[in-house]
Design goal:
The complex is a heterodimer of chains A (about 250) and B (about 100). In chain A, helix 3 packs across helix 10. Chain A contains ten helices and two strands. Chain A starts with a helix and ends in a 10-residue tail after the last strand. Chain A has a two-stranded antiparallel sheet with strand order 1-2. Chain A has one domain. Chain A has about 250 residues and is an all-alpha fold. In chain B, helix 1 runs antiparallel to helix 2 and helix 2 runs antiparallel to helix 3. Chain B is elongated, with a radius of gyration of 18 Å. The longest helix of chain B is centred in the C-terminal third of the chain and has 33 residues. Chain B is built from three helices and no strands. With about 100 residues, chain B is mainly alpha-helical. The two termini of chain B are about 35 Å apart. Classes of the chains: A mainly alpha (about 250), B mainly alpha (about 100). Chain B: Its main location: membrane. Chain B: Keywords: Cell membrane, Membrane, Transmembrane, Transmembrane helix. Chain B: InterPro entries: MrpA_C/MbhD, Nuo/plastoQ_OxRdtase_6_NuoJ.
Chain lengths: ~250, ~100
């Protein structure tokens, strides 16, 4: 297709899209109003399910199947990255170099890594009560661990990062979400239905299935992102192309 | 001024910040600068989501948009630059340092 034809095709689609999108937006509830039909129903349902964080109630109880789909996307993309970035035959692995770090940076890392990891666990565990949950807490756990790379060097990060265990934890977390969904079927309800005892509103053990699903997602996301970053870091820090690869085939 | 009006101004300000940083990220040519601008965009979006009273989304945005995605881009750039540098040994590409926002 020639350049001018491509540009004309773009403008034609852009105009159609703009018209239809504007039309669709006029049908939306107004921005920032106090009454919202879906919000009112979601809040009422999450109060009935004794889950203080309405967003968690929507994500892990009312629309848990959507979250299962999202989580599977993350799992599949981590798996795909691992397959793509596996070591090719014409690559060799060099030892990572020791980095030079200011003592103050090292001290800050030493203090901040445990605090960040604790924050991550807190956010996963309190997903049913306060903003956050498995996904947010999992990402904080994963990024907190990588502070060791900033504050020290790659060898330290490798020592505190049990990759084989995390590979397994990623798969187990994803599997646990699917398995927890069967609790509803066993109890005679629907798949992923919240059939566990709901507990007291505002307590750590409230919400029935919500904290368990949060924990599964936290394990899956946390270990998934560490594994994902590990394959990128290996490529950037350790893996080098072989010295005399005359064929010039890409990696 | 009532709090509702103040809040609307805050949201409008955050939206403008998002538009400005997103435009800057789209216009940047150097991938490294683009990654940094993407992190700034992530931070602006975090502020916007906080003002829109969506702390859950703001937390995810802060962790993924500001930390993980730019890091993945930077690592990829480092890998690509080094493998091209080792393939054409003499070809040294200096970093041009401009001073655009």
């Amino acid at each position: 297709m020639s350049r001018s034809a491509r540009i004309r095709l773009f403008w034609a689609t852009a105009v159609v899209f703009a018209a239809v999108y504007t039309l669709a937006c006029t049908g939306l509830p107004h921005f920032g109003t106090a009454v919202h039909p879906y919000g009112t129903r979601a809040v009422a349902t999450s109060l009935r399910q004794r889950t203080a964080n309405v967003v968690s109630s929507v994500n892990f109880d009312q629309r848990a199947l959507d979250t299962l789909g999202e989580e599977s996307i993350l799992f599949a993309s981590v798996l795909g990255t691992l397959v793509l970035l596996r070591r090719a035959r014409d690559e060799r692995v060099g030892p990572p170099q020791a980095g030079r770090v200011l003592p103050s940076t090292r001290l800050l890392g030493l203090v901040m890594v445990p605090i960040t990891l604790l924050t991550g666990v807190y956010i996963v565990a309190h997903g049913q009560l306060s903003p956050g949950g498995g996904f947010q807490g999992g990402v904080i756990l994963a990024t907190g661990l990588h502070m060791a790379y900033v504050a020290a060097d790659y060898r330290v990060l490798k020592r505190i990062r049990p990759l084989a265990v995390l590979d397994l934890a990623d798969a187990l977390g994803a599997g646990a979400f699917v398995a927890l969904g069967f609790a509803g079927l066993i109890a005679g309800g629907a798949y992923l239905q919240n059939v566990l005892p709901l507990g007291t509103f505002g307590q750590l053990s409230s919400g029935g299935l919500v904290p368990l699903l949060n924990a599964a997602v936290g394990v899956e996301v946390g270990s998934g992102i560490i594994v994902l970053l590990a394959s990128f870091l290996d490529q950037a820090v350790e893996v080098r192309p072989a010295r005399n690869s005359g064929s010039g085939g890409g990696t | 001024m009532s709090t509702a009006v103040v809040q609307e101004y805050l949201i409008a300000g955050a939206l403008l910040l998002v538009a400005a940083s997103a435009t800057a990220a789209a216009l940047a040519r150097d991938p490294v600068r683009q990654a940094v601008l993407l992190a700034v965009l992530g931070l602006c979006l975090t502020v916007l989501f906080t003002f829109l009273q969506a702390p859950d989304v703001a937390l995810s945005q802060l962790a993924v948009g500001t930390a993980v995605t730019p890091l993945l881009i930077l690592l990829t750039v480092r890998k690509v630059r080094r493998s091209t540098a080792s393939r054409h040994d003499g070809d040294e590409r200096g970093q041009e340092g401009g001073d655009e926002s």
